[in-house]
Automatic annotation (TrEMBL):
<protein>
    <recommendedName>
        <fullName>Alpha-L-fucosidase</fullName>
        <ecNumber>3.2.1.51</ecNumber>
    </recommendedName>
</protein>
<comment type="similarity">
    <text>Belongs to the glycosyl hydrolase 29 family.</text>
</comment>
<dbReference type="InterPro" id="IPR018526">
    <property type="entry name" value="Glyco_hydro_29_CS"/>
</dbReference>
<dbReference type="InterPro" id="IPR057739">
    <property type="entry name" value="Glyco_hydro_29_N"/>
</dbReference>
<feature type="site" description="May be important for catalysis">
    <location>
        <position position="298"/>
    </location>
</feature>
<dbReference type="GO" id="GO:0006004">
    <property type="term" value="P:fucose metabolic process"/>
</dbReference>
<comment type="function">
    <text>Alpha-L-fucosidase is responsible for hydrolyzing the alpha-1,6-linked fucose joined to the reducing-end N-acetylglucosamine of the carbohydrate moieties of glycoproteins.</text>
</comment>
<dbReference type="GO" id="GO:0005764">
    <property type="term" value="C:lysosome"/>
</dbReference>
<comment type="subunit">
    <text>Homotetramer.</text>
</comment>
<keyword id="KW-0732">Signal</keyword>
<keyword id="KW-0326">Glycosidase</keyword>
<dbReference type="Pfam" id="PF16757">
    <property type="entry name" value="Fucosidase_C"/>
</dbReference>
<dbReference type="Pfam" id="PF01120">
    <property type="entry name" value="Alpha_L_fucos"/>
</dbReference>
<dbReference type="GO" id="GO:0005615">
    <property type="term" value="C:extracellular space"/>
</dbReference>
<dbReference type="InterPro" id="IPR000933">
    <property type="entry name" value="Glyco_hydro_29"/>
</dbReference>
<dbReference type="InterPro" id="IPR017853">
    <property type="entry name" value="GH"/>
</dbReference>
<keyword id="KW-0325">Glycoprotein</keyword>
Amino acid sequence: MPSRPPPCPALPGLLLLLLLLLLLLRPARPGAVGAAPFEPSWESLDARPLPEWFDAAKFGVFIHWGVYSVPSFGSEWFWWYWQNQKIPKYVDFMKDNYPPDFKYEDFGPLFTAKFFNASQWADLLQASGAKYVVLTSKHHEGFPLWGSEYSWNWNAVDEGPKRDIVKELEVAVRSRTNLHFGLYYSLFEWFHPLFLEDKSSSFQKQKFPVAKMLPELYELVTRYQPEVLWADGDGGAPDSYWNSTGFLAWLYNESPVRDTVVTNDRWGDGCICRHGGYYTCADRYHPGHLLLHKWENCMTIDQLSWGYRRDAGISDYLTIEELVKQLVETVAYGGNLLMNIGPTLDGTISAIFEERLRQMGAWLKVNGEAIYDTHTWRFQNDTFTPNVWYTSKPKEKLVYAIFLKWPISGQLVLAQPSGIPGETEVELLGHGQPLPWTSFKPAGMVVQLPQLTIHQMPSRWGWALRLSSVI
Ligand SMILES: *[C@@H]1O[C@H](CO)[C@@H](O)[C@H](O)[C@H]1NC(C)=O
Ligand SMILES: *[C@@H]1O[C@H](CO)[C@@H](O)[C@H](O)[C@H]1NC(C)=O
Ligand SMILES: *[C@@H]1O[C@H](CO)[C@@H](O)[C@H](O)[C@H]1NC(C)=O
């Protein structure tokens, strides 16, 4: 009789089982934001805590640059306004300045970026006081500023500059500054044949996301590791068409930036202000009240365009007073400000944008303590004195009152915070000496500002008081 094989020894079997259990139960990514892997559903993705650096940053610079910077006329929506909407201003501009058979694609080779020096941009961004930058890696015209494998012959490496713009800026920003590097990406493209085909199927077909948008996004993230991914342009299609939740689950679970990346809310029709990372809600968004969710006010210094346009006049550009006001109001309501500039086709940043950026930097150098790393306060603005905005640092028991008009009386009345005699100190940022204050009835305080000539002012356009231990 053949002998029976010995019974399977129990011990190794148990060990194996234990090992298997351990493998199954181990946290997928120890130390990552929200250790559990995210599911491709909004319920799961929306629950991801926003990486902390973003709320602390408060101020970023948006850069709109692409083939539309060649005509640099009217708007970065040039192609659409000219060929789809047939707006006379654009049609006439082309008639007057270009041969009759000139196509938008012919602007591609003219996009030379001749003087583009990413190090100069990076140094200017640093000087602006911004903590992050968001570059349009591809706008609705579909021209990627990197050598996309999925946009053959219509990208900045094969055409125009013949340079990897995204790479050059990424390297310069990461090596010369402490800014976080971010990328804007338009999901749809106005005239891409596959997108148009999908659209005419009421987005039942999914050729464009499968062949173009999804592979491009994966490529963009793996190659350049952006820490902000600013989606835009859903083209009227739902997030299921874009496979947004599938992509974001990969971004949060597996991508090289899974722990630090932040995204916005423009991931498909109906997503805005509801799903994704932080909310943008609308261009130039201003809720006018506190939100329970982190948000960003994206706006542009040239009030009429995001891309550079040669037909802008000085009154079209927001003044530094207006920009400081935007920043202060936005931060007081808990938002971040993303302030846009549009470089020229040569890759230069016009003197007006440069001046605004340097002015913001000069203001933040003195008053940044009242902006960066702050939280909202009980009140967002003063109810007695107009143009006074509040931020706070609860751990340090500090409240900041930022005032945009220097009172003629030299006395600033603050009706919201009340000082504690013998405890509360008031200081003007950049001035450095404690200021006298008295109580204001029934609540609040009156701060005696120092008598300063215009040359002694620590900053212009706005000032900040640091108030300690107020109630
Ligand atoms: C680019 O700008 C940097 C910083 O201003 C400068 O040092 C460098 O020489 C510039 N490169 C070229 C090619 O002009
Ligand atoms: C869409 O996302 C799902 C995950 O939800 C993924 O399995 C699938 O491969 C994605 N499709 C494409 C085309 O990337
Ligand atoms: C200031 O705050 C009050 C209430 O706290 C509000 O009614 C008013 O609209 C605010 N002013 C501005 C300019 O937001």
